[in-house]
Design goal:
With 156 residues, the protein is an all-alpha fold. The protein contains six helices and no strands.
C-alpha cells in the first residue's frame, strides 16, 4: 500500500534506473537519522538544564536556534561538496575528486574558524540582532558568564 502512495504511476523501466529503491533507501535513512539526532540534541539540552530555572532554559533554547543555523550552513556545504566530488568520481576523475574533497575540508574548517571568532567577539550583538531585547539574565546564561561568576564572584 505504501509503495502505491510513494511510487509514480508511470514506472521507469528497470534498464533505465540508475539506482534501486533499496540503494536510495540506504542513502535516505541516514539523512533522516541525522536530522532526528540534531533535534534530539536540543531536546536533551533543555531537559538537562531545566533544573537551573527559566532563564537557563530560555538561554538554551536561544543557543539551540543559533546552533541549528550553523548546522544548516554546514549541511549545505557538505551537500554541495558531495555533489562536486561525486561528479568527478562518477566521471572517472578520482584525482580531481580527491582535490575537491580536500578543498571542501579546508574551506569548511576556515568558515568554522571565522564563524567561531565572530560569535566569540560579537556574541551579545548577534543575540540582540537575532532575538531583539533579551533579558540580561538570559543573555548572561547564553554567553556562559554565570559559570565565570561562580568561579570568580568579583566579576561584573
Amino acid at each position: 500500500m505504501l509503495t502505491r502512495l510513494i511510487e509514480p504511476r508511470a514506472q521507469i523501466p528497470d534498464e533505465r534506473k540508475r539506482f534501486s529503491n533499496q540503494a536510495l533507501t540506504a542513502l535516505i535513512v541516514p539523512i533522516i537519522i541525522e536530522q532526528f539526532l540534531a533535534l534530539l540534541v536540543g531536546i536533551a539540552d533543555t531537559l538537562m538544564i531545566s533544573y537551573a530555572g527559566e532563564a537557563a532554559v530560555s538561554a538554551v533554547s536561544l543557543v539551540n536556534q543559533l546552533n541549528n543555523i550553523f548546522i544548516m550552513v554546514f549541511s549545505a556545504l557538505a551537500a554541495g561538496g558531495a555533489v562536486v566530488a561525486s561528479q568527478y568520481v562518477g566521471s572517472g576523475d578520482k584525482p580531481n575528486g580527491d582535490l575537491a574533497c580536500g578543498q571542501l575540508v579546508m574551506i569548511t574548517s576556515l568558515i568554522s574558524l571565522v564563524m567561531m571568532g565572530i560569535v566569540l567577539l560579537l556574541g551579545r550583538q548577534i543575540f540582540g540582532l537575532l532575538f531583539g531585547s533579551v533579558e540580561d539574565d538570559v543573555l548572561q546564561h547564553c554567553r556562559g558568564l554565570h559559570r565565570l561568576r561562580l568561579l570568580h564572584p568579583r566579576l561584573p
